[in-house]
Amino acid sequence: MNFYSLNNANNQASFREAVIAGIAPDKGLYFPERISPLADAFFNNIESFSNHEIAFKAIHQFVSDDIPDAVLKEIIENVLDFDFPVVELEENVATLELFHGPTMAFKDVGARFMANCLGYFSRGEHTEVTVLVATSGDTGGAVANGFLGVDGVNVVILYPSGKVSDIQEKQLTTLGQNIVAIEVNGTFDDCQSMVKTAFLDTDITNQKKLTSANSINIARWLPQLFYFLFAYKQTKTKGKEIIFSVPSGNFGNICAGMVAQKLGMPVKHFIAATNANAVVPKFMENGTYNPIPSVATISNAMDVGDPSNFIRIRHLYQDNFAKLKENLSSFSFADDTTRAAMKAIHSESGYVTDPHGAVGYLGLKKYQKSNSDTYGIFLETAHPVKFLDVVEDTLGLSPELPPQIQKVMGKEKKSIKINTYEGLKSYLLDS
Ligand SMILES: *Cc1c(COP(=O)(O)O)cnc(C)c1O
Asked: Where does the Threonine synthase N-terminal domain lie (predicted)?
């Protein structure tokens, strides 16, 4: 299967080419040329398949030209070695826990899948690939962990000094080997703009093969559709129509859910829940897309002012606003509402949510007010310990550090400090 650029459908690439390039030469995002529905029997019998079998069937059509079946099976086994439980909190309200992976945020699956694909494509190649990525927190750890020890791939992660949590910093600065952390004296936006400048700098690209590891890369974006199938497998016997509420920032996760629906999975409706960064909720009100600079919130992994994957969602609906509205609602919630929800959930069911999951919960409840006859699943995208300050401050309790977090906390931080783009450039040219 080919993937075409959303800027010009004539610009096409194979899966392999699109993964290595990240973005099309015309700067468009890649999109699959077809999404062929899976057999009804697959969905009717989904509970009889293992997660590995489900993932294989779901992603096969997109990657099979470039990855042989036996290798794909191996990749899926490497990537999916933890659980994705659905936990019911109230009648018709459940959460899908996506935080049981090595860095305890949902980005582990996409990052590991991409790392495995790139590792496979790099076998026998003479030039190494450099993955350059800016992080506001969770992406860095997931990418570092996913790519650790992958031959032929070097990873350079830029993060804003003093603006990520201790846990997040340890996760991205302590691994060593092929992972390098660059600590930027600036904001996340500065990190991101340095990465963009490097991709356009021919002094660098003449010497090094660069790619990105955020959700614009199809190998990071597409495998996220597995989550929705795993949730469906666990809840289809509830006998109600299923709705998903997805805490959204760059809208990669929810867009992957919509691809699962295109594959034939029965879903009544999607809800994109956001924090105060409300570009998409406003778009869903009036059909005007108006990107604005992001504002800081307690759910900081969703502080995005121009969500990069929303264009893929619009494309899925051929830019037909009425059709999109039938399948998607989007609501924005302020931090005080989110804190109140964390408290309410905790006092009613004893469950501790992180601030992102709580935003998802709020979106779900809002939609169910006028659609009560549905079974609602909100995605819990990170373990509460990853946002320890907010959880402690809001709920007055300290969740215990899980073993995979304890392991990194004792390790020594190593980073290269830079102030300007020139610092990044000389590092890339000299390494
Ligand atoms: C990245 C992230 C999100 C947002 O996901 P998108 O795919 O960018 O919409 C939500 N919650 C957490 C915890 C994240 O790390």
From this structure: 3-78
